[in-house]
Design brief:
- The complex is a heterodimer of chains A (303) and B (325).
- By secondary structure, chain A is α/β, with parallel strands linked by helices.
- Chain A contains nine helices and nine strands.
- The N and C termini of chain A lie far apart (43 Å).
- Chain B is α/β, with parallel strands linked by helices and 325 residues long.
- In chain B, β1, α1 and β2 form a beta-alpha-beta unit.
- In chain B, α1 crosses α7, α2 packs parallel to α3 and α3 runs parallel beside α5.
- The longest helix of chain B is centred in the first third of the chain and has 24 residues.
- Chain B is globular.
- Chain B starts with 6 loop residues before the first strand and ends with a helix.
- Classes of the chains: A alpha/beta (303), B alpha/beta (325).
Chain lengths: 303, 325
């Protein structure tokens, strides 16, 4: 009597499973392809067919969206709230809380304004310097619309009518240990001076759910220094299971767009830092209040 | 320029760019007398009653004789010794010329009451860096030699000329031009060699945006420069392309390779390839120039070729040349 199925049976089961998985992936990719193509066409109309000086290539962005959107839609189950709060006519600066160890929150915010908005907007996200040094990554992120986080770049982009995405907490925001989740870190002031300089409205965005991509994290500054990287998170799975351990958990994400804040007309771009700090603090409080309000309603990871 | 006869000295008169510039000068100013000097001999000397060419070793004594025997009104200093095919001997010569030679030329121009000196620097002084913002204006720090010590003289020469320009602004008009990649069928500089090489490669892992200016347009800029307000100017044609598109426009069958492999090939075949090592950084990172000041200062120059057209023109000429061969 045979206790175990033969090797052939295993092989058939394996093949069937793999075929189902690939069919499932193909189904989702195909389902979204038309929608993404339509959005990309609208983006081309808005930003031009040609590559821009920062390297944006809508074709590359379209390809990137083909892979990001299924994750956005099915894995992180993103919900966008408050779309009506976005300025209708003018370009703007988005200020958001940063979380999740790797900048997926940025990609999700950018995807949301392309895929959920009738007339899509490409928010230009900022990348850290080291990203633009690495082969392949430098090429992909530039062509997908990310720019080097530099005030000159932002100024030129705003002058050309683009909207930008700023995480004023910087690396400190994204690389928090578990005990600091949802506590906003110190905000930089540069974005507010830019807003004053060009009279650009500020849109506060609050992201809930991204901190749980890695629910238990301990930051190791010593390892980061040793490896010359901005941060080195240690989780129950990373670095123990290698890159597989770096996969984020399927935490549902809610993106809340707040009401537009106009820069204080009594100030100008050269106003004293103490005055600018007060205004920046007000924006920080708006986002922290929204976090505190929405956090108890956070959706569960598995429901 | 006054109707009276004026005398222009062109230092570095052998190159393809100088040849075009001299032709344009002679055509535009019917009374202008031109003297061209170079360390190299001309293959086919240009014959024109108002043009004289002298082969000159770039030594202090030779320059002193040249300036004293002639009464130059303008000096066009194009003589950046080519970066291609660098041997140790040539590198030493370049360092001497760029630093000591430049100082000699500046001093002599001042002593012999030259009205205006135009210095051709390069956008390589800024350096291609991963943290370069897009569009570098003329005030941006010069970081070209941070990674590549062989560019130290280029950066120092530019800085020295700028300081000199400010020191002597009431006595002599000085113009420093920092052009982007100059390309054209008659040039043999590093970037033209890279773009037109039969073994054509573009980077697989990077694709920065690049600018070019066609040699014809650069010659027009140099001709106009003797009339333009003194100062520092970036020079570029309108528009930009990705490095991949630039290579593919010239050679649609070009291969893609990671930059580290390109770098190895370049090191192994440097003499044949003719591409200096530091240029490979310009295939990785952006170094885009802001055109604002140039457009205002050189408003009268009609740029014939946009960046894309300059590339297309280079490709067209290369194909013609191949057909002839």
């Amino acid at each position: 009597m045979k206790l175990l199925p033969s090797f052939d049976v295993h092989q058939t089961l394996y093949n069937k499973a793999m075929a189902s998985v690939s069919e499932l992936i193909e189904f989702y990719l195909n389902e979204n392809r038309k929608k993404i193509a339509k959005k990309s066409e609208l983006l081309r109309k808005r930003y031009g067919q040609e590559r821009d000086p920062w390297g944006l290539n809508i074709d590359t962005l379209q390809t990137a969206l083909t892979y990001i959107y299924p994750l956005y839609d099915k894995y992180f189950r993103v919900k966008l709230h408050g779309l009506e709060n976005l300025p209708k006519k003018k370009n703007f600066i988005v200020i958001a809380n940063h979380s999740g160890q790797i900048p997926i929150d940025g990609a999700l915010i950018i995807t949301s304004l392309i895929m959920e908005k009738k007339n899509p907007i490409l928010l230009r996200g900022m990348g850290e310097r080291f990203m633009f040094q690495l082969p392949f990554l430098a090429k992909i992120v530039s062509e997908a619309g990310t720019i080097l986080g530099d005030r000159k770049n932002c100024r030129y982009l705003l002058e050309r009518g683009h909207s930008i995405l700023v995480f004023p907490e910087g690396v400190k925001g994204i690389t928090k240990s578990t005990e600091d989740f949802y506590k906003l870190q110190k905000f930089t002031n540069g974005f507010y001076r830019l807003a004053l300089e060009q009279d650009i409205p500020i849109v506060p965005i609050t992201v809930i759910g991204a901190e749980e991509f890695y629910p238990y994290v301990h930051q190791s500054p010593k390892m980061a220094e040793l490896l010359n990287v901005p941060s080195f998170p240690i989780t129950p799975f990373f670095p123990w299971f290698g890159l597989l351990g770096a996969l984020p958990m399927p935490s549902p994400v809610d993106i809340h767009i707040g009401k537009t804040i106009k820069p204080n007309k009594k100030l100008n771009k050269d106003s004293p830092t103490s005055e600018i700090k007060k205004e920046v603090q007000k924006i920080k409080e708006v986002i922290q209040e929204k976090i505190d309000k929405e956090l108890p309603k956070k959706r569960k990871m598995f429901e | 320029m006054n109707k009276a006869e004026k005398h222009l000295l062109i230092i570095g008169a052998k190159g393809g760019l100088a040849y075009k510039t001299i032709q344009k000068f002679l055509k535009k100013y019917p009374k202008l007398k031109i003297t061209g000097v170079d360390t190299r001999l001309l293959d086919k000397p240009m014959k024109h009653p108002r043009y004289t060419f002298k082969r000159l070793e770039y030594r202090r004594g030779d320059f002193e004789d040249l300036f004293r025997e002639n009464n130059f009104d303008y000096v066009l200093y194009l003589s950046r010794v080519t970066h291609s095919k660098i041997s140790n001997k040539l590198l030493k010569k370049r360092l001497n010329l760029s630093l000591q030679g430049t100082q000699t030329i500046l001093d002599l121009s001042l002593r012999t009451r030259v009205q205006k000196i135009v210095i051709l620097s390069s956008f390589h002084v800024y350096g291609a860096m991963n943290d370069n913002p897009i569009f570098l204006d003329e005030r941006y720090p010069l970081r070209g030699s941070l990674k590549f010590p062989e560019l130290r003289d280029v950066v120092e020469m530019d800085q020295r000329c700028e300081a000199w320009m400010h020191e002597n602004r009431n006595v002599i008009d000085t113009l420093i031009l920092r052009p982007t990649n100059i390309i054209g069928p008659s040039l043999r500089n590093g970037i033209t060699n890279y773009l037109t090489h039969p073994l054509s490669f573009y980077p697989m892992d990077y694709n920065p945006t690049v600018q070019f200016i066609h040699e014809d347009d650069m010659a027009s800029v140099l001709v106009e420069s003797i009339k333009v307000e003194p100062g520092l100017y970036n020079v570029t044609a309108p528009g930009y392309v990705s490095i991949k598109n630039a290579v593919k426009t010239i050679n649609p069958d070009a291969y893609s390779l990671p930059v580290f492999a390109l770098s190895k090939i370049n090191t192994l075949a440097n003499k044949k390839f003719g591409v200096p090592g530091y240029l490979l950084d310009y295939l990785k990172f952006p170094c885009l120039l802001s055109e604002d000041k140039f457009q205002k200062g050189f408003a009268k120059v009609k740029i014939k070729y946009s960046v894309k057209e300059a590339i297309e023109n280079l490709g067209k000429n290369l194909r013609k040349k191949k057909q002839k061969d």
